[in-house]
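quick one: flavin mononucleotide bound model?
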Amino acid sequence: MNVVVLHGSAHIGGDTDTLISSFLEGIGGEAEHNTVHFRPIDMNIAHCRACGECLSGGGCVIDDAMQQVYPAFSKADVVVLGAPMFWGYMTSQLKTLFDRLEAIVSREHFGGKDFVLFVTYRSFYGSMVEWLQRVTSWCGSRCHALTCQTFDPETGRDVPIAVLPEKLRKAETIGQEVLRIREVG
Ligand SMILES: Cc1cc2nc3c(=O)[nH]c(=O)nc-3n(C[C@H](O)[C@H](O)[C@H](O)COP(=O)(O)O)c2cc1C
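yep, here:
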């Protein structure tokens, strides 16, 4: 499978990264696949300027790190999103990347995939799942989502995902499901 992982967090090995690792175990390990990782906070990705140049079908005219993301995203069978909640939505670096994907937004580039969303949050996770369900149902892809609270309101303490084994198992199970779906075709 061609797997693209979009790490929306700045935390290497943080909550969403940990869920992604369990997912990758579920698909038999990333080395079994053509797996490409992007961490937008460490990449040179400009904001979409809504210039409209992409409407001609020639892609985005901004020459930056998105030019590596476009072909990988387009040919991906599986797109994994690590999305910590920031003010009720995805992090700004992940949003910037998605804004730029507007240049290739079509069933051709977005369809036929399995999108996997890992949301971590302290108190609320707002509209992320709804957003991805809407996008995937429009383009003819599947949506697999797992939301995980990483805060205990009773103690007022953060709960690292690493001590929530049932969530890690669920992430791994999603990996196994996606692998089975793609193998069956
Ligand atoms: C700037 C900022 C904004 C945040 N906004 C929210 C929010 O709106 N809702 C929420 O439940 N958690 C919010 N959080 C908490 C993070 O989503 C949570 O700690 C998450 O587990 C971090 O995942 P990571 O380790 O993968 O980065 C926010 C954290 C930061 C730093």
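The domain at 2-184 is CATH 3.40.50.360 (Rossmann fold).
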